[in-house]
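Q: I'm writing up a methods section and want to include an example of the input and output format. Could you take the sequence below and give the corresponding predicted C-alpha coordinates, formatted cleanly so I can copy it straight into the document?
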Amino acid sequence: MVVPPIVALMGMLLQPAVPAAPKAALTPFFVTDPEAQGPAFFVECVNPTSAPISSGSDVWPLSKTAIRIDGQILIDEGGRIGPGLTTAVPPGGTWRGILQLRQSATGAFPAVAFGAFVRAGMLVPLKAGEHTIAVRCSGTWSDPVRFYFEQ
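A: Here is the clean output for your methods example:
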Protein backbone atom coordinates (compact mmCIF):
# COMPACT_ATOMS: atom_id res chain seq x y z
CA MET A 1 0.00 0.00 0.00
CA VAL A 2 1.29 3.43 -0.96
CA VAL A 3 0.73 6.17 1.63
CA PRO A 4 -0.08 9.57 0.14
CA PRO A 5 2.59 12.18 1.03
CA ILE A 6 0.11 14.36 2.96
CA VAL A 7 -0.90 11.39 5.15
CA ALA A 8 2.76 10.56 5.82
CA LEU A 9 3.44 14.20 6.72
CA MET A 10 0.44 14.31 9.09
CA GLY A 11 1.69 11.12 10.78
CA MET A 12 5.12 12.67 11.34
CA LEU A 13 3.61 15.86 12.74
CA LEU A 14 1.47 13.92 15.21
CA GLN A 15 4.43 11.92 16.58
CA PRO A 16 5.27 12.91 20.16
CA ALA A 17 8.42 15.02 20.30
CA VAL A 18 11.42 13.52 22.05
CA PRO A 19 12.26 15.92 24.86
CA ALA A 20 15.76 17.37 24.92
CA ALA A 21 17.97 16.55 27.88
CA PRO A 22 17.62 19.13 30.66
CA LYS A 23 20.39 21.71 30.77
CA ALA A 24 23.14 21.29 33.33
CA ALA A 25 23.24 23.61 36.32
CA LEU A 26 26.53 25.38 37.08
CA THR A 27 27.13 27.00 40.47
CA PRO A 28 30.33 28.85 41.46
CA PHE A 29 32.34 26.75 43.92
CA PHE A 30 34.57 28.73 46.25
CA VAL A 31 37.82 27.15 47.41
CA THR A 32 39.77 28.91 50.17
CA ASP A 33 42.97 26.92 49.61
CA PRO A 34 45.55 29.28 48.00
CA GLU A 35 46.90 26.31 46.00
CA ALA A 36 43.51 25.84 44.30
CA GLN A 37 44.80 28.01 41.46
CA GLY A 38 41.67 28.84 39.57
CA PRO A 39 37.91 29.19 39.52
CA ALA A 40 35.76 26.16 40.27
CA PHE A 41 32.15 25.21 39.56
CA PHE A 42 29.74 22.64 40.97
CA VAL A 43 28.05 20.93 38.01
CA GLU A 44 24.75 19.04 38.15
CA CYS A 45 23.41 17.04 35.20
CA VAL A 46 20.21 14.98 35.04
CA ASN A 47 20.14 11.51 33.48
CA PRO A 48 17.38 12.05 30.87
CA THR A 49 17.23 8.40 29.77
CA SER A 50 15.13 5.49 30.98
CA ALA A 51 18.24 3.49 31.94
CA PRO A 52 21.02 3.94 34.50
CA ILE A 53 24.24 5.60 33.20
CA SER A 54 27.67 5.13 34.77
CA SER A 55 28.99 8.18 36.61
CA GLY A 56 32.14 7.66 34.52
CA SER A 57 30.34 7.82 31.16
CA ASP A 58 31.36 10.34 28.52
CA VAL A 59 27.84 11.83 28.57
CA TRP A 60 29.02 13.85 31.61
CA PRO A 61 31.50 16.76 31.34
CA LEU A 62 34.65 14.74 32.07
CA SER A 63 36.68 15.97 29.09
CA LYS A 64 37.66 19.40 27.85
CA THR A 65 35.52 18.95 24.72
CA ALA A 66 32.45 19.09 26.99
CA ILE A 67 33.45 22.56 28.25
CA ARG A 68 33.06 25.93 26.54
CA ILE A 69 34.98 28.96 27.78
CA ASP A 70 34.03 32.32 26.27
CA GLY A 71 32.03 30.52 23.58
CA GLN A 72 34.92 28.28 22.46
CA ILE A 73 34.94 24.51 23.02
CA LEU A 74 38.17 23.47 24.70
CA ILE A 75 40.57 21.08 22.99
CA ASP A 76 41.73 17.86 24.65
CA GLU A 77 45.47 17.46 24.60
CA GLY A 78 45.61 13.93 25.90
CA GLY A 79 42.33 12.38 26.92
CA ARG A 80 39.78 12.83 29.59
CA ILE A 81 39.76 12.81 33.37
CA GLY A 82 39.54 9.35 34.89
CA PRO A 83 36.42 9.21 37.06
CA GLY A 84 37.90 6.92 39.73
CA LEU A 85 35.23 4.78 41.36
CA THR A 86 31.95 4.80 39.48
CA THR A 87 28.34 4.23 40.33
CA ALA A 88 25.11 4.13 38.33
CA VAL A 89 23.16 7.37 37.96
CA PRO A 90 19.51 6.20 37.81
CA PRO A 91 16.97 7.49 35.27
CA GLY A 92 16.04 11.02 36.34
CA GLY A 93 18.92 10.98 38.83
CA THR A 94 21.53 13.72 39.11
CA TRP A 95 25.22 13.43 38.28
CA ARG A 96 27.34 15.88 40.28
CA GLY A 97 30.90 17.00 39.71
CA ILE A 98 33.30 19.74 40.75
CA LEU A 99 35.10 21.32 37.80
CA GLN A 100 38.17 23.42 38.50
CA LEU A 101 39.88 25.54 35.85
CA ARG A 102 43.43 25.21 37.14
CA GLN A 103 46.07 27.74 36.19
CA SER A 104 48.98 25.40 37.00
CA ALA A 105 49.57 21.66 36.96
CA THR A 106 51.14 21.87 40.42
CA GLY A 107 49.47 22.26 43.80
CA ALA A 108 46.87 20.39 45.77
CA PHE A 109 44.21 18.18 44.21
CA PRO A 110 41.48 17.99 46.88
CA ALA A 111 39.03 15.11 47.17
CA VAL A 112 35.41 15.16 46.06
CA ALA A 113 32.88 16.83 48.36
CA PHE A 114 29.17 17.62 48.68
CA GLY A 115 28.00 14.44 46.96
CA ALA A 116 30.07 14.94 43.80
CA PHE A 117 31.13 11.85 41.84
CA VAL A 118 34.33 13.48 40.57
CA ARG A 119 36.52 16.51 41.14
CA ALA A 120 38.12 17.36 37.82
CA GLY A 121 41.01 19.80 37.80
CA MET A 122 41.69 20.75 34.20
CA LEU A 123 44.51 23.01 33.08
CA VAL A 124 42.71 25.92 31.42
CA PRO A 125 44.86 29.10 31.37
CA LEU A 126 42.71 32.21 31.75
CA LYS A 127 43.49 35.89 31.28
CA ALA A 128 42.31 38.24 33.98
CA GLY A 129 38.83 39.59 33.31
CA GLU A 130 35.28 38.54 32.47
CA HIS A 131 34.61 35.05 31.11
CA THR A 132 31.75 32.61 30.50
CA ILE A 133 31.62 28.86 31.03
CA ALA A 134 29.15 26.27 29.75
CA VAL A 135 29.22 22.46 29.94
CA ARG A 136 27.65 19.70 27.87
CA CYS A 137 25.71 16.88 29.52
CA SER A 138 23.93 14.20 27.47
CA GLY A 139 24.49 16.25 24.32
CA THR A 140 22.84 19.42 25.69
CA TRP A 141 24.83 22.56 26.52
CA SER A 142 24.12 24.46 29.72
CA ASP A 143 23.39 28.14 29.65
CA PRO A 144 26.64 30.12 29.89
CA VAL A 145 27.56 31.33 33.37
CA ARG A 146 29.47 34.58 33.62
CA PHE A 147 32.41 34.81 36.02
CA TYR A 148 35.38 37.06 36.66
CA PHE A 149 38.96 35.93 37.20
CA GLU A 150 41.76 37.92 38.76
CA GLN A 151 45.31 36.64 38.78
